[in-house]
Amino acid sequence: MFLLSLSFLLCIVNAVFADVDHCLWQGKRKAPGESWALGCKVHRCGDDGKVNTVINDGCENDNGLCLDLDTHWMDRKECAFFKCTMEESIYVIKQSKGCKVDGECYEQDDLVMPNACSVLKCDLNGILEVKKLGCDTSEGCKKNKEIWGKIEGESCVTEKCVARLVKGKRFISKIESLARSKHCKEKNADVCHRRGTNWHEYDSEEDKCHGIKCGRLGRRQIKRMKG
C-alpha cells in the first residue's frame, strides 16, 4: 500500500515538472521560445513555462489586425471613417461619420458634386451642407427654382429646376414641367420669351414688322408697328 502511494506521488511530481518546460495557451501546449501574435500583442513561451506578452506600437481593429499610427480605413456599408491616433501616449482609434450620396461615401470636409452644377460639403456627423444647388440640363446649368422656356415642336414648354436636400443627407434634383406655360415662342426663330417680354418680328407675308408681347397666360399678343 505504501509503495503504491509513493508511485502515485512520483507520477504527479513528474507530470508537474514535465509541464514546466511548456506553456499552456488556451488549452494548447507551446514550446519554449515559441512566439505567436494576436493583433498588436506578441506572446512568447518562456523557459520557465510562463507566457510573456509584448504590446507593439499600433491600433488593433475589429478584425484583429495591428495598424500603424496615422493609418486610415473605412467601413463602406456604414459610411464610417477610422484613423489610428495617439492620445496621452496611448494608441486609440478615432471614428468619424461620412456622407453617403448616390451610394458613394464621402469623408468630412469633402466636396460632393452629385451633378455638374450642384456642390455640397460633407459636414460633421455625416450631414451635407449646401454650397450650391442646381439642375444639369442640355442647355447648361440651371439654378434651383430657376424657370426657363424650352422649344418643343412649335411651342414653348416651361420648365423649372427643383433641387433640394432631404434631412441634410439625401440629394434630389429634377426638372418639372409647369402645367401653365410662362413662355411664348418666337415665330421665325427657336427662341422662347418669358411672360411680359416684348420683342419684334418681321412678317414676310405682310412685309411688315410687328411688336410682340408675351401675355400673362403665355400667349402672344401682336401689336402692329409702322414702317
Automatic annotation (TrEMBL):
> What keywords appear on the UniProt entry?
Signal
Q: What is this protein called?
A: Uncharacterized protein
Q: Which residues form the signal peptide?
A: 1-18
Query: Which domain of life does the UniProt lineage start with?
Result: Eukaryota
- Does the keyword section mention Signal? yes
